[in-house]
Amino acid sequence: MAVHKLVLDAIDEDLFTLIAIHCTLEDYRLAYLLNKFLGITLTRSASDIDFQNGTLTYAIYEWEDCKQQTIWSLVSNVCKTEHYREGSTDSLFSVQEKTTKINHLIPEYKTVNYFLKIDNEFNLSKEKYILNRILKIPQVATAYTIESTQLKSKDHLIFS
Hints:
Strand content: 35-45%
Distance between the termini: 44 Å
Radius of gyration: 20 Å
CATH topology: TATA-Binding Protein
Number of domains: 1
Number of helices: 2
CATH architecture: 2-Layer Sandwich
CATH class: Alpha Beta
Strand order of the largest sheet: 2-5-6-9-1-10
Low-confidence stretches: none
Structural class: alpha+beta
Mean pLDDT: 84
Oligomer: single chain
Largest sheet: 6 strands, antiparallel
């Protein structure tokens, strides 16, 4: 009996540019400054990115550039959740302890505060221009591009 083998030569991967942004600003403030410095119009999405049935949510701002046919997404990498548990004390009254747990959208980049994902791969000069404009924002500590091949959890960057 003959064995038939199917080989997939070229699988189209999603082409995107991913920029990591380190800053301590609130998400709405960073979106405003990116709009101002890059000349884009990021707006808050109607719903956040939802993981684990609503227990983890990440804020997302999006803008669709119809001329370039690209979608720009600014997403928070940090989600803080608070949990209350009964404290074990030898007291007459029950004491609740509040603990805060920090979760990350992309766990391998825990120091990154925000990601700017652009759903179109730019040439190197356009990418450098965008990075230089972001680095001109005084509140941004640093920003750099991340290769999509370096990401273990790139599935978390699928927003639609």
